[in-house]
Amino acid sequence: MSWANAFIELDKAIHDRSSFDCGEAKLNSFLQTQATKHMEVGVSRTMLLPASAPLPNGKYPICAFYTIAPGAISRETLPKALAKKLPCYPVPVFLLAQLAVHSEYHGQGLGKITLIKALEYLFEVNAHMRAYAIIVDCLNDDAEQFYLKFGFEALCEYDGRTRMFIPMKTVAQLFS
Ligand SMILES: CC(C)(COP(=O)(O)OP(=O)(O)OC[C@H]1O[C@@H](n2cnc3c(N)ncnc32)[C@H](O)[C@@H]1OP(=O)(O)O)[C@@H](O)C(=O)NCCC(=O)NCCS
Prior knowledge:
alpha+beta; 31% helix; eight-stranded mixed beta sheet; Aminopeptidase; 8 strands; binds coenzyme A
């Protein structure tokens, strides 16, 4: 099945969350049980790429999604050369909290497309409300390798995961 041509906000009335499977139970479960609630209470936003055709139940399968949220880091977690230019109070960042592609579409470039769309979205937000960098907490080594490929750098260990970052200035170079 092919995917639609634009990312849109998750809508549980339209999108079939139950059929999404990226191979990582934590990410499937987030999309199926938490993403909508988190949007309702105002802590994150989930954008997704639906399939171009609906299922017999009338809902559209989800080919890929990303979730973003505001965040903050302490400047001490950054490399010294970057940290010394920053204020002592928490540094605002954007958190790329989740990103996944349905297993059926792995290896077809959709992870790359989804990441670029997430970066582009955050670049647009940054025009209105500035953040220093985009942060991602990697679920496993594969995710780390994936983000390394696209210019993210390891920052620190956080909650048992490798936290990676890309400065907003680097993202801006991609889109301006
Ligand atoms: C990681 C994930 C998003 C990649 O999606 P994908 O559609 O298969 O990736 P793409 O086909 O767009 O690949 C883009 C590039 O990343 C590389 N890549 C993809 N998966 C990779 C992996 N597991 N390890 C290293 N590199 C990887 C590809 O080789 C490709 O490189 P190229 O452009 O030089 O050819 C997908 O495997 C997934 O959803 N995994 C489960 C959820 C997950 O781990 N998400 C990470 C959030 S913490």
